[in-house]
Amino acid sequence: MLYYESDGLLATQELARQCGRLIQPGTLILLQGPLGSGKTAFTQALGKQLGIQRAIKSPTYTIIKEYDLPDRDYPLIHVDAYRLEEGGADTVDLAPYLNGQTICVIEWPQFIQAYLPNNYLLLEFEPQGLEGRRIALSLSDQADRRHRDLFDQLDQHFAFQK
């Protein structure tokens, strides 16, 4: 597990932008943390780095939002599973979005964990004071090379705490 100390929104966005520079299709990123901890801000900055021009909002009520990426033949999928806390995950067909041909970001993954593959990068957001965040990065047990390379490259770029 690696730790990134973000002193505010700009630092969190920089982490997301760097992730966007390195990310490959087939990558699944899970974002955990309390309300207001920076999950959607991270996704917005990632999407902007990938070339999305329109507003990226958390799909709290629609659950899944798909964004076409300019000059790429795969989309960014943004999932907000918050409303599935008390059930209903079995009514959402995630398989088409986790097929290796997308970049998928899932907020509140703990509510749909049973439906997720064991191949992902996890970012856990923990507020620190008024503006700061501690962001823990970890890999799933069965993370493939794509996820491991992203993890390693982020570590090299930011020199995370271990």
Properties at a glance:
162 residues; metal ion binding; globular; seven-stranded mixed β-sheet; T6A_TsaE; Rossmann fold; 7 strands
Would you mind describing this structure in some detail?
The protein has 162 residues and is of the alpha/beta class. It has a single domain, classed as P-loop containing nucleotide triphosphate hydrolases (Rossmann fold, 3-Layer(aba) Sandwich). A 7-stranded mixed sheet has the order 1-7-6-2-5-4-3.
Query: How many alpha or pi helices?
Result: 3
What is the tally of beta strands?
7
Would you identify the CATH architecture? 3-Layer(aba) Sandwich
**CATH-defined topology:** Rossmann fold
Helix content: 10-25%
Please tell me what the overall shape is. Answer: globular
GO biological process, one term: tRNA threonylcarbamoyladenosine modification
Keywords: ATP-binding, Cytoplasm, Magnesium, Metal-binding, Nucleotide-binding, tRNA processing
Pfam families: TsaE
Main location: cytoplasm
